[in-house]
Design brief:
Blueprint (H helix, E strand, L loop, with lengths): L9 E3 L5 E4 L4 E6 L3 E7 L4 E7 L13 H4 L3 H14 L8 E6 L16 H15 L4 E6 L5 E6 L5 E5 L7
Parallel strand pairs: 1-3, 6-7
Antiparallel strand pairs: 2-5, 3-8, 4-5, 4-6, 8-9
Length: 169
Amino acid sequence: MRLCDKKIPIVYLKPGEMYITEKPTLVSTVLGSCVSVTMFNPRLKIGAICHGLLPTYKAKLSCRSLMEEYKYVNSSIDNMVKKYKGYGVCSRELEVKIFGGSEMMHAKPDVVPIVSIGIQNVQAAIHTIKSNGLSSIATNVGGASGRKLYFNTQTGDVFMKLLGNKEYR
């Protein structure tokens, strides 16, 4: 499967980053327990993606920088919505997709199960999306495999490969 028809720039999104653009770009990232949320506005063809490591950022006043907020799923999503509002885009105009949240460390059968960071990240994403008046149109979360994503900011298309698998979906 071809990821795009034209030669467009490829940007690698590292953990704790967010990317939003009006320019056609292919954004790639690799997820384990982390969560990526993509947002796309078809009217203006603006795409955004985040790569959150931890579920919830609570102490907004003590944050050292905006970049630190992107380490957290909830504040990344909140900031993405704010950026879209700056473009004059309201929540109902956004196509939202959620990926990641794998359970990378499996507990032993005789150990009391705890909620993994992957599950917490997914729960934070779903809660924050709903609290911003959004809903997701596609979700691929959980499981035991990491994921590699390619997000086309011009079309909103996401190509995902489960690590250890050979084809993109």
